[in-house]
Write a structure and sequence with these properties.
CATH architecture of the largest domain: Sandwich
CATH class of the largest domain: Mainly Beta
Radius of gyration: 27 Å
Number of domains: 2
CATH topology of the largest domain: Immunoglobulin-like
Shape: elongated
Order of helices and strands: EEEEEEEEHEEHHHHH
Helix content: 10-25%
Strand order of the largest sheet: 1-2-3-6
Structural class: alpha+beta
């Protein structure tokens, strides 16, 4: 699974779970979900039970336009877990190509000791739509001329060939904000032409280079330099944007803190957070 989206939660419950009040339950639980798929593994406490039916539900939510997550699919399954080897391991893929922002809930459940037990964890992540996770920096474009989508660009109001642009990328900046800005402007324009989102600050950078020139005249100083620095910082943030994990902010439609719709949790159910709080 992609390391960028990797977030694994492992909880080892203390020996109190093996007391008379906890003749069965979850002993360990590890889960993960990212663009490549999902997994859950661990072990159960089954002191007084020969076996239980352990089920899983993987709910997939998608936010296609930034307006909030909506439910799009559910994966269900399970297996018998025996007290002679009370371990479990489930994993799978989604059966679809993921593109954009996703929220995946991995949920495990079983019934024993007269109550319903479950563990769950939520994972939010971004999946690339064009095979790339990140926009690219000036260093990338300097080292990968074969990836350039065009052979010329306009910086400010002046056209430059690819050879000239490569020279700009290789020029020592020596504190000249115009050269620093031009290098990031080259990268930003190549990123946009490669399919990334447009950026208004690109127009501001062109206007700045038109006003101050690029490879001639004195370096901008004072407020003129600071104006260039502000535009450069916006281009840097754009060129270095590399989404992988995103916050799970509670906006998924129909997502509650307990059992997924269609499953009934009993009065003795314990949420992952509730169980952890018992042993703080």
């Amino acid at each position: 699974m992609a390391k960028r989206a990797l977030f694994v939660l492992t909880v080892l419950l203390v020996s109190a779970l093996t007391s008379a009040a906890w003749a069965c339950g979850f002993a360990t639980f590890t889960a993960n979900a990212d663009c490549a798929g999902w997994m859950a593994e661990g072990s159960l406490i089954l002191d007084e039970y020969e076996s239980v039916e352990l089920g899983y539900v993987v709910d997939i939510y998608h936010d296609p336009d930034g307006s909030g997550y909506v439910f799009i699919d559910r994966i269900m399954g399970g297996a018998t877990v025996y007290n002679t080897n009370p371990t479990y391991s489930f994993s799978g893929t989604y059966g679809m190509d993921l593109c954009g922002d996703y929220w995946v809930r991995v949920y495990l459940y079983f019934t024993c000791c007269g109550s319903y037990h479950y563990m769950l964890e939520d994972f939010c992540f971004y999946c690339p739509c064009n095979g790339e996770y990140c926009q690219d920096t000036p260093g990338f474009w300097k080292d990968h001329p074969e990836a350039w989508p065009v052979s010329s660009l306009i910086l400010g109001d002046t056209p430059y060939t690819m050879v000239q642009l490569m020279r700009i990328l290789d020029t020592p900046t020596r504190g000249d904000i115009r050269i620093i800005l031009a290098q990031h402007l080259i990268a930003a324009k190549l990123n946009v032409l490669s399919g990334d989102d447009p950026l208004d600050d690109i127009g501001d950078a062109d206007a700045y280079l038109t006003a101050h020139g690029l490879l001639m005249g004195p370096h901008p100083t004072g407020s003129d330099k600071q104006d260039g620095v502000a535009i450069k910082d916006a281009l840097v943030a754009y060129n270095e944007y590399c989404p992988s994990t995103i916050p799970c902010d509670g906006t998924a439609a129909g997502l509650s803190a307990s059992a997924p719709a269609g499953l009934t949790s009993g009065a003795e159910s314990k949420s992952w957070g509730a169980i952890k709080s018992l042993y703080k």
